[in-house]
Design brief:
CATH class of chain A: Alpha Beta
Largest sheet of chain A: 6 strands, mixed
Shape of chain A: globular
Order of helices and strands of chain B: HHHEEHHEHEEHHEHHEEHHHEE
Number of helices of chain B: 13
Radius of gyration of chain A: 12 Å
Number of strands of chain B: 10
Strand order of the largest sheet of chain A: 1-5-4-3-2-6
Strand content of chain B: 15-25%
CATH class of the largest domain in chain B: Alpha Beta
Oligomer: heterodimer
CATH topology of the largest domain in chain B: Heat Shock Protein 90
Largest sheet of chain B: 5 strands, antiparallel
């Protein structure tokens, strides 16, 4: 599923853009960054849904090579986080949906989670 | 006329891209010659000749009130050259550009009008800010292309050759990073820098990712618990060895600390998505070897290594739909 479709499903605003053709294969919905980092399957085609609008959410994406982060419940990231995302080519979205709702909508559309892909070690 | 829907005439994609990226102010000449409206046409003739320019903006108190060019001068000469003021012969209806417009607007405007120059106005004050010529546009584009070319060249230098280029029985590279404690905004900078370095060395992306995650978690521990620390990574053709040392409070029971979910992190750290007791466990999963020693009141010393051998990359991502 490409980023344009995800943006549409989550009714999200684009805060930091990347190609809307970016393909997303795996979704991780999590506020605990160490859990995100422990998913080995997370790779360039991953989306992170999180309530954490801190710069460390973007750092985590940088380390784990996550392509897109969507901040939930209308949270807007700090400017430090925006700068870091731009520097590393990570797209940022903001959606008014809750983490639960966003996860449900994307799961229903067939996007897999980390454990299903055998990614949790 | 110059609304948002300007169709660019420039065909070369790279130039067009730069045309949108660069602003008019980057190509304009700020030190242009201007004259007042009360100068005589005879004096203007001398000014145009001695400066070898084709046109001069006419200003009054910093504001552009017209432009007088060679063509106006020729017409005046043909009409008998009766001396008069520039004000009478200048064009008052002048096409201008704003300094913050993309350069592509200027390029298109030259194409459309066939002029040799356009005065550039400061959008906020309306004052004359400079003059843009075709030559200025070409110069700014070339300058930018040269910078881009240099950056490309640097990017293409393959640092991985370093190992083959050295004459030694054993070669290794050491990278050292200082970690500032308690500064949560900067936590991860060392891991980020090391990851970028490993990519420059063309270490397999999966290996670089594992090292980055392990170092990031270790760096986070230093930031959370210590006043500061040091990360040293030694890279040789076979492995990456990393040392993380801090002078923090130390870990009283390492076995307990290694248990997933065990944490002594303060609440403010947890609110920022860390400190849930998964850090050391994550490090263990990412590296091939790990050893922690710690003395309460003195500090903690973490050593880990990751093999670079291709076969150690066991979990390449396969197509997951």
């Amino acid at each position: 599923m490409n980023l344009a479709k995800i943006k549409e499903i989550l009714r999200a605003d684009l805060i930091v853009a990347s190609s809307l053709e970016t393909r997303i294969k795996i979704v991780c919905a999590c506020d605990l960054m160490s859990d995100v980092l422990s998913c080995v399957q997370i790779q360039s085609g991953s989306l992170l849904l999180t309530n954490l609008a801190h710069i460390q959410a973007v750092r985590t994406a940088e380390m784990a090579e996550i392509a897109v982060i969507c901040f939930m419940r209308g949270k807007k990231p700090q400017s430090l986080a925006i700068d870091l995302a731009k520097k590393n080519g990570i797209a940022l979205l903001s959606s008014s949906l809750s983490l639960y709702e966003a996860s449900g909508l994307l799961y229903k559309k067939g996007l897999a989670g980390c454990a299903e892909c055998g990614g949790v070690k | 006329m110059w609304g948002s829907e300007v169709t660019p005439n420039v065909k070369a994609p790279k130039i067009r891209e730069l045309g949108y990226e660069l602003k008019v102010r980057e190509a304009m000449d700020k030190n242009m010659i201007t004259i007042g409206p009360d100068i005589s046409m005879n004096r203007l003739r001398g000014t145009l000749r001695s400066n070898r320019i084709s046109g001069i903006p006419v200003t009054e108190d910093g504001k552009l009130i017209g432009v007088i060019c060679v063509e106006d001068l020729v017409n005046w000469l043909m009409a008998g050259a009766r001396d008069c003021l520039v004000e009478e012969k200048m064009s008052k209806d002048v096409a201008t550009l704003f300094d913050d417009e993309p350069l592509i607007h200027a390029i298109n405007k030259f194409e459309q009008y066939g002029y040799f120059h356009f005065p550039v106005l400061d959008r906020s004050s309306g004052d004359l800010a400079g003059i843009i010529t075709r030559e200025g546009i070409i110069r700014s584009l070339l300058k930018r292309l040269e910078i881009d070319y240099r950056e490309e060249e640097i990017r293409h230098y393959r640092a991985s050759h370093v190992f083959e280029d050295m004459f030694a029985d054993k070669t290794s590279l050491t990278f050292q990073y200082c970690v500032v404690g308690q500064d949560f905004n900067r936590a991860g900078e060392s891991a980020s820098a090391l990851k970028k370095t490993l990519k420059r060395l063309e270490i397999h992306p999966e290996i670089a990712r594992r090292v980055a995650i392990a170092v990031y978690e270790a760096e986070m521990n230093v930031v959370i618990f210590a006043r500061g620390g040091e990360i040293t990574a030694e890279v040789d053709p076979n492995q990456i060895r990393i040392k993380v040392e801090d002078s923090g409070p130390g870990i009283p029971d390492i076995e307990k600390a290694m248990r997933p979910g065990y944490s002594t992190a303060p609440d403010w750290v947890r609110e920022l998505g860390f400190g849930a007791g998964m850090g050391l466990d994550n490090i263990k999963k990412c590296v091939d070897e790990m050893n922690i020693t710690s003395t309460v009141g003195k500090g903690t010393h973490l050593e880990m290594s990751v093999a670079i051998k291709k076969e150690s990359v066991s979990y390449e991502v396969k197509g997951t739909g």
